[in-house]
Amino acid sequence: MAKGSQGRKDLSKVKIGLVMVLFAVALVGLWARTGWVQLHDGSALLSKASKQSHAAEYEFGERGRIFDRNGAMLATSVEAKSVYARPFQIENIDVAADTLSRDLKISRRTVYRKLKSKKKFVWIKRQVTDRETAAIERADLKGISLLSEYSRIYPNGHLSGQLLGFVNIDGQGLEGIERIYNERMKPGKAEYVVQRDAKGGRMYLDAQGREMDINGLDIRLTIDTHIQHAAEQALATSIEKYQARAGIVMVVDVDSGDILAMANYPFFNPNAVSKSTASQRRLRAITDVYEPGSTMKPFLFAAALEEGVIEPDTLINCENGRWRVGGKTIRDTHPEKWLPAHKVMRYSSNIGTAKIGLDLGAGVYHSYLSRLGFGEKTNIGLQGETRGIMMPPDKWTSVDLAAISFGQGIGTTAIQMAKGFLTLANGGVTKDLRLIKSPEKARKNNAEQIFSQQTADTVLSMMKDVVHEDGTGRRARIAGITMAGKTGTAQKAAKGGYGDQYLSSFVALVPALDPELLVITMVDEPQKSNYGSMVAAPVCREVTVRTLAYHGKLSETLDTAVAENISVESLVEHPLEQSMDAPRQQPMTDRVPDFRQLPVRRALELLVKKGIVPVIKGQGMTVKRQEPAAGQPWPDDANKEGTDDVFVLWLS
């Protein structure tokens, strides 16, 4: 018995030893596996875990805005949702493709191809509607997400459309100011890391990138929205009345050289680029080259006076309206015999002007025109500007010189004409035109005295006679206001010579002898009448009246007809309200008014006057909701970052 017991005891020790060995082997194995996982597979496993619990998301900044000289909004961005996919996260491609195709109204084949992509990020549809956004949120598809970005809107529709230009769906400027200042206005992009729980819910969004300034910078133009609208409205009325092809109006502040208006017809609405044509998008004031006709005559007279070729009272034989030079016949609309030089200007005699040009000489006149900027770009900074057409003087025949003297045989742009007349208005000293108020560009000190002050004053006095009772520009007269002006009726070139179409134009400088305002009108191919005095002069008159009224400078002696047609008080107090079709007036009291159902353009105008630039959400052109609500007190710090006092407009 003792021996058996001892044998069993020894076997227990063996079992215990075996168990300990097994535990030791298991522990060593675990240690080895742990070491292998930690040292060999650690990086790969950490990457997989990070992909499951963390994801990168993006936030796009807002493109810089465009304002007029007074802070009125010309272009802004509104928040919009876009749908994107991370293909590697999608569980069932067929279900996702069916759902997205149905909710976003795009072909299943297109969606399916995108979802099969090997890329980490693919766009499904950009800038979707509110209804589509709600549908995607309800579907809650894994791997399909919504991203906030911005779409561009132009609150004033076609106002300054060609000048502003437009952007593509990625927010890249393609034409106009949008393209020229794209680098300044384009927004940045910030990437954020999002941690999710086991169900995919967001746990937190870290602060990575939050310190980045991803919004683009703003631009402020010299354009005045009120004057621009007056110019566009007057131009459209004339073109409709005379069934013209196109037109241009420019308004310039003489003292600063600021362009206050640059109207181009046909109009272009950058909110509807796909419905426009290249012809509508063209900024005709800088791209279209015209033979200006008689509006060029003041430059010839200035050169001739400066060179001592004529005096204001120099008598010139106007040949009773018919004269041959170099085998060509020049005719005057109003035949005269002997006229003093100042009446040659008043009655716009081509024959008298041609004789002055021939006495002046091709080389001398070409030199003056070159120094005025003709034949060269104005360097206003707009893409697409043309140089115009001006032959070298050694190629001018006597016929060429005679024709160029009264504005035929030379090609100019509206902006070149504006720069030339700005020199006359500025006492004979050149001055650069300016379109961008901010960021302010350093101006080169390249002013040149081309004409003496006396010569400039004499030419302006002659142009004042043009608007006299018997002058060609009498339809531009404004009672109580002195105006220097010049009409132009230029026959347009056609194949083999000149055709039966005309460019009608008028230039106005107000006041006549110390100009503060320059207005240029060009109407292309009017049908019912082709005279600048009939077609273009009334446009200049209307634009001038409305601009002076807006600035509070319209004389009290304004004639009754003007007073009846235009309410000076309404123009000064509400210059946009009567013409931009606001559905109702919004008194700006100490309480927030009701902006609902207002066009976003009108709401922005009223808020900017209050010093508030609102946050705009959604898509559309009409306000459907606002915060603060109507009747609430005005927020104190609506423009201060980091405060809760934000003014928000939701669009429909």
Automatic annotation (TrEMBL):
Record GO biological process: cell wall organization
Protein localization: Membrane
InterPro entries the UniProt entry points to: Beta-lactam/transpept, Beta-lactam/transpept-like, PASTA_dom, PBP_dimer, PBP_dimer_sf, PCN-bd_Tpept
E.C. number(s) listed in UniProt: 2.4.1.129
A GO MF term: glycosyltransferase activity
Keyword RNA-binding: no
GO cellular component, as recorded: plasma membrane
Signal peptide: none
Stretches assigned to the PASTA domain: 586-652
Keywords in alphabetical order: Carboxypeptidase, Glycosyltransferase, Hydrolase, Membrane, Protease, Transferase
The keyword Thylakoid is assigned to this record: no
Name listed for the protein in its UniProt record: Peptidoglycan glycosyltransferase
Organism of origin: Pseudodesulfovibrio profundus
Lineage: Bacteria, Pseudomonadati, Thermodesulfobacteriota, Desulfovibrionia, Desulfovibrionales
